[in-house]
Amino acid sequence: MVAGARGGCAQAGAARRGLLALLLAVSAPLWLQAEELGDGCGHIVTYKDSGTMTSKNYPGTYPNHTICEKTITVPKGKRLILRLGDLDIESQTCASDYLLFTSSSDQYGPYCGSMTVPKELLLNTSEVTVRFESGSHISGRGFLLTYASSDHPDLITCLERANHYLKTEYSKFCPAGCRDIAGDISGNVVHGYRDTSLLCKAAIHAGVIADEVGGQIGVLLRRGMSRYEGILANGVLSRHGSLSDKRFLFTSNGCSRSLSLEPDRQIRASSSWEWINETGDQVRWSPGQARLQDQGPSWASGDRSKNHKREWLRIDLGEKKKITGIRTTGSTQSNFNFYVKSFVMNFRNNNSKWETYKGIVNNEEKVFQGNSNFRDPVRNNFIPPIVARYVRVIPQTWHQRIALKVELLGCQIAPSNDSLVWSKTSLNTVGSTNREDETILKPIPSEEMPKGLNVITIVTPLVLLVLLVAGVGIFVVLRKRKKKGNPYGSAKAQKTDCWKQIKYPFARHQSAEFTISYDNEKEMTQKLDLITSDMAG
Ligand SMILES: *[C@@H]1O[C@H](CO)[C@@H](O)[C@H](O)[C@H]1NC(C)=O
Ligand SMILES: *[C@@H]1O[C@H](CO)[C@@H](O)[C@H](O)[C@H]1NC(C)=O
Ligand SMILES: *[C@@H]1O[C@H](CO)[C@@H](O)[C@H](O)[C@H]1NC(C)=O
Ligand SMILES: *[C@@H]1O[C@H](CO)[C@@H](O)[C@H](O)[C@H]1NC(C)=O
Ligand SMILES: *[C@@H]1O[C@H](CO)[C@@H](O)[C@H](O)[C@H]1NC(C)=O
């Protein structure tokens, strides 16, 4: 049926191409509408073992006349667990608004309205197609779904809060993709989180799991505090919170102590800022001032030009250590509003080359979200940890001037097992070995972005235009067929097929930034094993 419909669509598209192209040229807004109508998917993050998926605009109202269809899988041989965190679809009949799961052997749903919906489904397959469709409606949040393989029967959704559980100690599995789901957390990793905080988001904030991957969390419930601090960590902002009865902490692997540094011997930088103040004294913002625990001005770079992305601050730990996080501040001086907004990390051992720290999922340089003012410390965690003697912070964007204080978190390495971490992942080499302090780094590629972007901005509209022409053609012909009474089923089904054709190019284009997929699963397994064993230890 699908194939037949598509053939017909394509023909009609050709026939009407001239007219439609003209039409489209004058009515660009039409495309936008097509895009909205065709794509009802919202936030989607998939990892090989778990993931999160919502309807468009969740938790806001989902749009009229949309479809979201996606097939999710876990490794072959495992069973899929689906957990619905939220379902709010405005329909009592499920005729035009519904959520439906279809596997090779079973169908679950359609679900809608006020019907009782199972919170959790354990399928006997490793693959399921999720389909959400909306007609015309006024309200409704749509849905939030998480999934995992049957290896994780303690899967929770991104919406579970600590006050949903009464036990004082428990373990749960957080799926990939909870970071960007709406909902508050308050507190921090050291003192604990208010019990009203979302568990999985707090775990990402705490550096216990990476958003792209998810993972097991261990939770301890404790007596509450009168006030909870709000800070930025791992790209998640926790808010200030008031007195609560209970708070929670995460069980830790014990590898997040502050690594001590001797300022003059162990911290170097590409340049530093010096100037003469009004009383004729020389004021230095030297690398030795880059320790977070020290009072006074920070390190600042000599160069304040925007495009000079080769400044660095280098720390020598004296020996190879396991580094699980970094805390940074800006200048800490109210009259010098300087701070680093984003940075990347390099690391190396005695005689090896500098390597770039990469994201856990894609093979790209990981850009960390840094400070948003000159004063407050911001934490970022390395999952998996860096194991190295030297690390280098390379600012990418900053406010006014590069100014940094840092603290590294981590521990001594256990004698045996650590080499596994980085040898397998073989990271990018960005610099030369010897004189690394003077001659540095090839320019970091971000400088070249504009060229690539230009190409994309030219090509994409062309491609979209062509697809749209075809798509509208398809739509028109199907409507005609319907009038003639064709054998392919209901009008809605046809519309669906055609919309699908229009939808896909847009959907891909649009969801690229949300959907995370894998290239190298074997490698990931090794890294994950490591994380898991870390957390257990
Ligand atoms: C899966 O479950 C359905 C019923 O729920 C059953 O009919 C089917 O045979 C099962 N398939 C497998 C592979 O176990
Ligand atoms: C859907 O369309 C109806 C009628 O045009 C309108 O009243 C309603 O607000 C729309 N709903 C949404 C979610 O846009
Ligand atoms: C100039 O710098 C010196 C040494 O850091 C300091 O003692 C003095 O107060 C500064 N003067 C002004 C006007 O800031
Ligand atoms: C690196 O150098 C330090 C001091 O120079 C030395 O103690 C250590 O054994 C060296 N490590 C390796 C792996 O060569
Ligand atoms: C090394 O790893 C093995 C299993 O991978 C584990 O049993 C052992 O305890 C680890 N040793 C250390 C020192 O962490």
TrEMBL record:
Q: Pinpoint the LCCL domain residues.
A: 152-248
Question: The F5/8 type C domain covers which part of the protein?
Answer: 255-411
A Pfam family matched by this chain, by name? CUB
Keyword annotations for this protein, in alphabetical order, are: Disulfide bond, Membrane, Phosphoprotein, Signal, Transmembrane, Transmembrane helix
Q: GO cellular component annotations, sorted alphabetically? A: plasma membrane
User: What coarse category fits the chief subcellular location reported for this protein?
Assistant: membrane
| TM segment ranges | 455-478
Is the keyword Glycosyltransferase assigned to this protein? no
CDD domains from the entry? Answer: CUB, FA58C
A single GO molecular function term of this UniProt record:
signaling receptor activity
| Topology relative to the membrane | Single-pass type I membrane protein
The CUB domain extends over: 41-150
**Do you know which Gene3D superfamilies this protein is assigned to?**
Galactose-binding domain-like, LCCL-like domain, Spermadhesin, CUB domain
Where, per UniProt, does this protein localize?
Membrane
Claim: Nucleotide-binding is one of the keywords in the record: no
**Known InterPro entries for this protein?**
CUB_dom, FA58C, Galactose-bd-like_sf, LCCL, LCCL_sf, Neuropilin_MCO_CoagFactor, Sperma_CUB_dom_sf
Which region is the signal sequence?
1-34
Disulfide bond positions: C41-C68
> What PANTHER family does its record include?
DISCOIDIN, CUB AND LCCL DOMAIN-CONTAINING PROTEIN 1, F5/8 TYPE C DOMAIN-CONTAINING PROTEIN
Query: What name has this protein been given in UniProt?
Result: Discoidin, CUB and LCCL domain containing 1
